[in-house]
Amino acid sequence: MDLKIIYEDGDVLVVDKPAGMVIFEERINPSSLNSSGPFLINELIKSRPELKNVGEAPRYGIVHRLDKDTSGILLVAKNSEVLIFLQKQFKSREVDKKYIALVTGVIKEDSGVVHTLMGRSPQDPRKQKCYPLAPNTQHLTPNKREAITEYKVLERFPSYTLLDVTIKTGRKHQIRCHLTYIHHPIIGDKMYGFKDSPILEGLDRQFLHATTIKIKLPSGGIKEFKSDLPEELQKILKELT
């Protein structure tokens, strides 16, 4: 499989990840045990075997994550020093990450912030769950971590809203969980969608795409990488207008 490479230098690869592809095998994650199809890191290693020397198996040089059915920009470090350098920026919230999402229902306000705690759902270990913030810091535990998502309305349709989403933290399933928490689940999200969520004909994935990442590279310069909305998602939007 030929993966689209947006950018490459001696330190980093920027991949335009397709929907439907798992990045790497998470053996301890029950939701990934039955994942089918190739793993993205394995496909990269076929042409760049030196990536097996970066970080630890099975993720090797993968800097951050995208869910299987989320498409868009993914950073891959080409050596362990760069991996640590880039991951520190994610942990310290120095990376600008933007997504495009189409959600159920019409959001009236032009922008908003979702600020909660987030942890694994006790009802379903595959999912995350949002918890309201308490008035003091004692609520922060290893199992419940702060999660912040900002959104802006790009366009409203009769039954849907197109959002520009920025995440300030990097929790698992953060955008999907947060948008469901405010009662506007992402269209096509089978895990976080409501039982009566509408289904758009021709959409066989969740409508979530990582469009932009802005980050400092080891060379010292700040780079912004962009990925266009995939054709199948553009087609859905055209059919809504």
Explain what this protein looks like in three dimensions.
This protein is α+β, with helices and mostly antiparallel strands and 241 residues long. The chain has four helices and ten strands, in the order ββαβαβββββαββα. Strands 1, 2, 3, 4, 5, 6, 7, 8, 9 and 10 form a ten-stranded mixed sheet that branches. It is globular. About 4% of the residues have low confidence.
Distance between the termini: 34 Å
Mean pLDDT: 91
Radius of gyration using CA atoms only = 18 Å
Detail the poorly predicted runs. 28-36
Helix percentage: 10-25%
Overall number of strands:
10
Biggest beta sheet attributes: 10 strands, mixed
Number of helices: 4
* Helix and strand run: EEHEHEEEEEHEEH
Structural class per helix/strand content? Answer: alpha+beta
What are the SSEs and their pairings?
Layout: E1 4-8, E2 12-17, H1 40-47, E3 71-77, H2 80-91, E4 96-104, E5 111-120, E6 128-131, E7 145-156, E8 160-167, H3 174-181, E9 208-216, E10 222-226, H4 231-240
Parallel strand pairs: 3-9
Antiparallel strand pairs: 1-2, 2-3, 4-8, 4-9, 5-6, 5-7, 7-8, 9-10
Question: What are the key terms here?
Answer:
10 strands; ten-stranded mixed sheet; 16% helix; 31% strand; 241 residues; alpha+beta; 4 helices
Give me a quick take on this structure.
The chain has four helices and ten strands, in the order ββαβαβββββαββα. With 241 residues, it is an alpha+beta fold.
